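Review session, final week

We close the course with one last complete record, chosen because it touches almost every idea we covered. It is Glutamate racemase, a protein from Candidatus Westeberhardia cardiocondylae with 281 residues. Go through it on your own first, then we will talk.
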Amino acid sequence: MIINKHICNYRPVILILDSGVGGLFIYNQIKRVLSFAKYIYFFDNEYFPYGKRSDFLIVKRLINILKTIQKFLKFDVVIIACNTASVVACSELKKIFSFPIIGIVPDVKLAVMLSRNKIIGLLSTNVTINSMYMRNLIKKFSGMNLILQLDISNLIEIVENKLYGKCVSLTLVRKIMRPWLELDKIPDTIILGCTHLLFLKNEFKKIFHKNIFFVCSRNNILQCILKVINISVFNIYKLSKFNFIKNRVYCSTMSSKTLMLMPSLIKYGFSSLEKIRITNF
């Protein structure tokens, strides 16, 4: 097979940001398709979780993170792998930085298309639920559908603990989901409005005991990335034959607990974990 030299050497650098390690699911899904790219994963564990921070603090923090990382590392595109940070900060970040920034937001439009009983559940943080962005999104696409919303801040902690090697309590997950489980008609379509929740799909399926559509935004993210890096599906296939990339992962604070993540990080192809001290600009 003959491959153009320029195409063979093309290695876009994708920076993925989250407050925790929930964004690893997004990283893994993107990497399966774009295996030829270089990846930098940064999790802001010093400010974890963003769902408990104010809008102002989230925006200010992400500005500081991007300005700091930009001083040390080169990248071509940024993915905000956090629904809360995306709905709150993306529009502001795009005004400040010239590089492409892609956010992950709850896919209400797809959920409406999939729902059969017209009852849709949205699992996200209160910050996401109460954001103007989400209110406008629901108003635009919900139509005759009923959108039930549930704060899942406690589930985020459960997922983090899962990736730190702890077992997930199905009883606790069921308790958090009880407001929906006790309804006469439960949602038949659930929007996973937080990247952490993607790690709990198996637990959700055990709890609901029925065929439910679980909606996330990973396909939209891939489409956006392909537009930004301007590469065809044909060239993706050719480049996937040359996957010899060492990807890097960074955190904002290091502790003995943070190091407990290494077994999970190794599973995702990372060999080391380093700290980047975030500067306040």
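Two points worth writing down before the exam:
The radius of gyration is 19 Å.
The chain has two domains: 5-104+218-275, 108-215.
Good luck, everyone.
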